[in-house]
Design a protein that fits this description.
heterodimer, A: 149 residues, Glutaredoxin, 4 helices, 34% helix, B: 80 residues, alpha+beta, disordered C terminus
Chain lengths: 149, 80
């Protein structure tokens, strides 16, 4: 079952065929079977199924470039990660880009953009921004609270 | 496009997480989210609103305590 329309999936296939270069690793942390029920905090996951379908649609748009792993957190072996969480990164490296919650609406576009940028390494930051970043000596965590928009 | 994601792509010391505020109300309350986008750096300082690249990067680095985080002057103007 797909969460994206046929037209959007076709657009993704065409776009990824043109823009992806190197392999990209997607990892979805989810809790299967929790469906859309609203349960007490920490038990339910009303958006997990939609997130899984979205991740599968993304991977299916470029199966030769995008690998998807789905991690079931039900057993508690994922370090307490919230669900759903989707990470985008380079294979065999710790991912540094993630979404917590279903990245719908405008945020879906940022996932597509991140996949393309990770695949090509094109951050397109200015020299001044890179100079500033180069001065960092400790980890910097950026949390962006957003709504689907 | 997300400037936080682009910073994470550019530096191995940077990680970016986008949180759907309405899905995680307790976390949102814990970080004082009243408007979006709200950007929280190292779980300490924060700012609200989409900023052009130069201002966004400068604000993040300043909140992270990066010494050389003087406001960059030639950002591309894309929103954060």
């Amino acid at each position: 079952m797909s969460i994206l329309t046929d037209r959007l999936r076709e657009q993704l296939r065409e776009r990824f065929a043109e823009r992806l270069r190197d392999p990209v690793q997607l990892t979805l942390f989810t809790r299967p079977g929790s469906g859309r029920l609203i349960l007490p905090s920490g038990l339910g996951c009303p958006t997990c199924e939609d997130a899984k379908q979205m991740a599968e649609d993304l991977a299916a748009a470029a199966p030769e470039r995008i690998r998807l792993d789905v991690v079931d957190v039900s057993g508690g072996g994922a370090g307490g990660v919230e669900v759903p969480t989707l990470t985008v990164g380079v294979p065999d490296q710790e991912p540094r880009i993630r979404w917590q919650g279903l990245p719908a609406g405008f945020e879906f576009a940022t996932v597509v953009d991140a996949i393309e940028r990770v695949s090509t390494g094109a951050h397109d930051l200015s020299p001044a921004s890179l100079q500033g970043l180069a001065a960092a000596r400790e980890p910097v965590e950026i949390m962006v609270f957003a709504t689907p928009g | 496009m997300s400037l936080a994601n682009r910073m994470a792509l550019a530096s191995p010391l940077v990680s970016a997480i986008t949180i759907e505020a309405e899905e995680f109300p307790e976390l949102s309350r814990a970080f004082g989210v009243q408007g979006v986008p709200r950007t929280v750096v190292n779980r300490r300082g924060a700012f609200v609103g989409a900023l052009p690249e130069a201002q966004f990067v400068g604000a993040v680095l300043q909140l992270a305590g990066v010494a050389a985080a003087e406001p960059p002057g030639d950002g591309d103007g894309s929103p954060g």
